[in-house]
């Protein structure tokens, strides 16, 4: 990470990523949380403007995310914790360039629907239910991750599924069906349950909202949230 002060009230942080997918994964994770806490040896005043410059190998234009220091906490050893609140950038040139690269790579893999990394925490209404995470999304479906040692009983192939997200234009309801389940190895866990969903019979308005989500055009300011439902509950929430 490179820290490049632009002036007294602005700081630029530069971060490089090996792939466009890694950049978008971090972009959606960080911006989706709404804010980030950074440790630094330099105390900044509230209101200081941050520009996070994210560069992916093979993509000429960087993605810029603007933030603002909203809280400063002194720490031992002459360090400070800075809370930076993200804003939604209006400059999409860099973001569109990264997305186009991902779409091109996905087409080379002969995938019918290019997948875009997405990091959104989702809740489910069953008591003591584990956390779910939206990990990628496409025009045809969504990949989910479960923060648990095994899949909950309601996650099974053939089960009706509903993903709800609050977007800038309003709520988005994506009905589908669980089509596969598996496990993956993650850095934070030896085995992580995952599953895939195929969207079914989307109305035209819903398909248009999904398209805006896949291209990251309709995401609201963070924190982002989602809700997942299965089985009869998923069907009842659609009526």
UniProtKB/TrEMBL annotation:
<feature type="domain" description="PilZ">
    <location>
        <begin position="110"/>
        <end position="214"/>
    </location>
</feature>
<protein>
    <submittedName>
        <fullName>Type IV pilus assembly protein PilZ</fullName>
    </submittedName>
</protein>
<dbReference type="InterPro" id="IPR009875">
    <property type="entry name" value="PilZ_domain"/>
</dbReference>
<dbReference type="Pfam" id="PF07238">
    <property type="entry name" value="PilZ"/>
</dbReference>
<dbReference type="GO" id="GO:0035438">
    <property type="term" value="F:cyclic-di-GMP binding"/>
</dbReference>
